[in-house]
Predict the 3D structure of the following.
Amino acid sequence: MIRQPIMDNWIFSRLKDADVQKERWPDQGETICLPHTFAEDGKAWKGVGAYRRNVRTDPAWKVLFIEFEAVDQSCRVFIDGCEIGAHQGGYSRFRVQVPDQAIQNGRFELTVLADNRLNEHVSPHFGDFTVFGGIPRSVNLLICEDTHFDYLYYGTDGLILHTDVDEQGNGILDIEAHTVHPGPAELAVRVLDEQGKMVAFGEFDADEAIQLSVSQVRRWNGRASAHLYTITADLIDREHIADTVTLETGFRSIRVDGNGLYLNGEHLFLRGVARHQDRAGTYTAATREQIEEDFDLIDEIGANAVRLSHYQHPQAAYEQCDRRGLLCWAEIPMLKMTEDAALQENAKQQLTELILQNIHHPSVYCWGIQNEIAMFRDAPFMHEKCRELRDLAKALDSTRLSACANLYPVPPESELNGITDIVGYNCYFGWYYGDFPDFGKYLDAFHKARPQVPVGITEYGADANTALHSSKPKVKDYSEEYQALYHESVYPFLRERKWLWGVTVWNMFDFSSDRRDEGSVRGINGKGLVSYDRRIRKDAFYYYKAQWTKAPFLHICGKRYERRATETICIRAYTNCPEATLRVNGKVLGGGQQNGNGVILFENVPLTWGENRVSIACGTCSDEATFIRVEQEPESYRLLDTGEGNVLNWFLKGEMKEDCFSILDSAQTILDSPAAGSVLKEMKPGLYAALTGDTGIPLGLTLKSILSRETKDPEQILRINQALQEIRKIQSDDGRE
């Protein structure tokens, strides 16, 4: 097989609805190169885009495929105006075969219609991230002989690798080959180690089951030793090599129990970050070099795991995980589950593509089947459909874990917590609701209720706009200082609970979310430890570097909070060193001890008018900053919107009765209680009607978050909360309140 990129000289045009319905597209358009998205001046666009290109062929070619690494989100493919293929799902690879006549003609016009409009039958049709549309990854011609690997088999290379390690430490490689061969054909398979030495070889009939053994295999063992092997399969037709596929893989074992996760039999606490694929400028069309830059930053922070959320990422991302020893959570974009049968079939298709296209990557330890589907409701049909997805994942790959991520209001006893091998919870105590210590209380209550369920935290974080600052950070001020305080306050509650299989910071990078407008920034989810353009490492980034890395380092916080209007300031440093010395304007002011949480505080540091040059040193590590004493801090340091959004948690100042209902409960929990539901029905009849109707309002959200969008009257929210606090949750034996 010869792979020939076709990335340049495409004509792109945005279609009107009438043109889409009549299947016509303009002759003129913008000349572009792939990869490409629908984004205009940084803004998302919803619709159908037509990509056209002339393709030259050689009549001597036997078989020709067009390979799409992804088209976002649905697409139809035409050759000379005739539709030859379609695909539903914006993140996986697929291919179409070119008709023989088009090959013989010596050229054809290729047209791709990419459609990112809301589609109730295709996931995602809900999510806190932007569906940019377009052709954001590579397009290639695959030129093949009559005998070739089956490149139409779920977008794979026709070679499915299953690896395991037996009790004697030998690597077991089972190969599932999918081939097309008009006559007899054979497979010759070689296994090479990292030095290029052949450690296993076998010749087989093209249609028979294949198994090879690698004696005393060197295991892929995460960050400790990410050993990879190269598998090369030659498809032989009459003693002629007709096609060759080469893949990298590794051998390792994964298991979990109520006490955590085990890699190759050794307990491993996953210190992870989540990653979305988009970034400033290129959006979802990130280059291989940009993906590598992302993983350089993940390496720098010292993470040993990554959640590639909420969809299938480019192959380059999984390759980076393999080579750097990062355990990878891979998942499909099932974020809103409905009773629509077509949506479930699409989920199965996307899950099959995700698994079969990535099963050779040893870094992948689990397949995620859903994220926060109970945001809308926790219904029996969801449990059934999740079991179907879990069973499909196990049928395709019995060696890896099945996984799900639940919204925090999902109670421990929910069936959603008993379907997959591992469960993740997305929790935002101290940001959207509650306080920092609630993490410990929440996790302990879950572990007590379901001690056998392997649970971890798949999302936690707080937004930060690096232009906003405060010496007294508060929730929802969006300051860089509050985000740093959040993480240094929350992570210890997670770190000390060793029975968690791990944690995943949300998020490694700021990412686009066209539904958002907060923190003085439109269209961005600002929970990243690194800015959207990857130029700024926020202070919270360095907190985790202090937690997770061993090479000595030190970072002074608040460098962007340069202008101060006080006589003294508190200087905070993140470090993995035990102690450090502070100098201001060249003068030693004293030493400080690290508090065991990666933090050194120097309090009451005096500032003179004008510039104050600060340096902190610890052995070979040092860092510098400049703080300028001024009469008044710039207004730009403060959030302009001082309305309801900044005081979402104001009511928590009072004592909350945990055995009673409150607006911290999910809307579903309130509606499930006749007494609590009647409070809402009486005090907010319009909202009650909307929640009990089929309006699509996420019932898994807290009532507080829904009310905050429905009313600008904090006093009314308080009155509703007070009424709910009069209703106890304790039930009688027959289930009534």
User: Anything to note?
Assistant: The chain has five domains: 2-144, 159-249, 254-549, 563-637, 646-724.
